[in-house]
Amino acid sequence: MVALTVFLALGVLNVYGVRTREVSATAGDDRLTVRYASVSRPGLASPWSVELRRAGGFRSDTVTLSADAAYFDIFDENGVEPEPVESRNDGDRIVWTFLAPVGDTLTFSLDARIEPAVQLKRARGNVSVPGTEQPLSVGFSTFVMP
Amino acid sequence: MEIVARATVVFLFLWLVARGVGKRELAELSAFELILLVTMGDLIQQGVTQEDQSVTGAFLAVGVLAFWIVVFSYLSFRFRPLRRGLEGTPSLVVRDGRPLDDVLRMERVTLDELKEEARNQGIGDLDDVEIGVLEPDGRFSFLRRTAGDDQGGSTPRHRT
Fold first, then answer.
1. Is B51 within 8 Å of chain A by CB?
2. Core vs surface per residue A120-143: b (16+ CB within 10 A) or e
């Protein structure tokens, strides 16, 4: 009974997911923030979004983000918001190109759930902003419970 | 967190259903029970686990139900006033060979069913029963009259 109570208490405390975390990094005028599920379970909707804030706004017409392609294997994707004007695979990375937003912040999010077949796996990834003067990258990982 | 809350709500609902349908339905292998048991599992599954297809989620859902069963059992054991509400109370349905019509009506038990239950326990005539009780789990208990009880000569007879 004690073991059962502890198990359930951990469930109430969201230890088994879905737990959401945020990581950020700054370089020059850019601040990159990724919000992701650090722990999740198969079948559950799990957050993943990236926010790029550029002090003074975006001067170019487009903004490019790059991410580990392998990380997204854990997801059953329903869609993305906003739709990139271009999405391509560049080796083991996905490169998204967006129209530069009005203002100083681009937010890109994935509407997805964890693939039911994925069990007991830690998926690691990172997002970077190519083409900036100073390299900017944020790493994250999601542990999928059995 | 959400699955624990959902499983708790569903457990309480199932408990209310089990208590609310009455003692007889709980004990009978009737069509009602068949429908209830077969469909209940299917119907509540999505409500509890939603899209969760993990083993962890299944353990949590089952664990919550088991937890509340143990808690209810303990509360019933520890606190006498709660026992009546949690487990129900036995109902006296036969006294001195006489079926208690009001109680039978309230419990939705016909006289034929009562006699059948008595026959199942080797009692051919309700006149032989000192007391008959419908237990909280829906089973009947009959206590036969002892030989001395008949010597009074004024045995009430039940209506047929």
1. yes
2. eeebebbbbbeebeeebebebbbb
Note the maximum CA span of chain B: 70
| Domain total of chain A | 1
Residue A104 lies in a domain: yes
Task: Note whether residue A44 is domain-resident.
Answer: yes
Amino acid type, B142: F
Q: Say what the pTM is.
A: 0.72
Per-residue pLDDT of chain B in tens (160 residues, 90 and over written 9): 777 887 788 788 777 777 766 666 556 555 566 666 767 777 788 888 888 888 888 889 888 888 888 888 889 889 988 888 888 889 999 999 999 999 999 988 999 999 999 999 999 999 999 999 999 888 899 999 876 655 443 344 443 3
Q: How far apart are CA B57 and CA B44, in angstroms?
A: 14
- What CATH number should be reported for the domain holding residue A32? 2.60.40
Per CB-CB distance under 8 Å, the chain A contacts of B67 are: 4-5, 8
Boundaries of domain holding A88 = 17-144
Contacts of A14 in chain B (CB under 8 A): 1
* Residue A76 counted as domain residue: yes
Residue A69 forms part of a structural domain: yes
Give the separation between CA A12 and CA A8, rounded to whole angstroms: 6
Q: What is the Cβ-side half-sphere exposure of residue A47, based on CA atoms within 13 angstroms? A: 15
